[in-house]
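Posting for a labmate who doesn't have an account.
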Amino acid sequence: MSGVEVLYACGHKQVADSGLLARRGDLIDVASANPCTDCCRRIAEEAGAFPAVFVNVQRISDEMSAFVLELTEVYSPLDEILAQTGYARSARSLDELTPGGVVDEYADSVWRKEFWFSLSTDPLHVLALMELVKEETGWLSGYLPDAGAVHYLDFPGL
């Protein structure tokens, strides 16, 4: 991995994966507008927040499925970072067939991002999409105080 030094809003600099930044140039803009991962983890710990990421596959319709990431116990500024990178508030998913819908109360909500694919999609494309999901999970994990807070094939529950 070759690295690129990124300047965050907090004034700290961190080395980021240059390949990731080439694919996700929006992350440089997000970094410049927000504190670094170290500061964000400290903020979460001070607030007593223990965010977690739940990564799973859900059936969206008869022809479509999606890899879904849902984050719980999101703190500020992580919520701003998620909003800037395509996440939206949603009700919690219950299982593979019951995705979270419109959120009634923010207290029980999650931040959700979906990576859709057709059930007839070439398997190699689905594998490439899985790589994108792993990449997404990788950069998100830097904002989590607990390294074990990424859960695959699991749901946030209530």
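Reply:
Got it, the structure tokens are right above this. The chain has one domain: 3-152.
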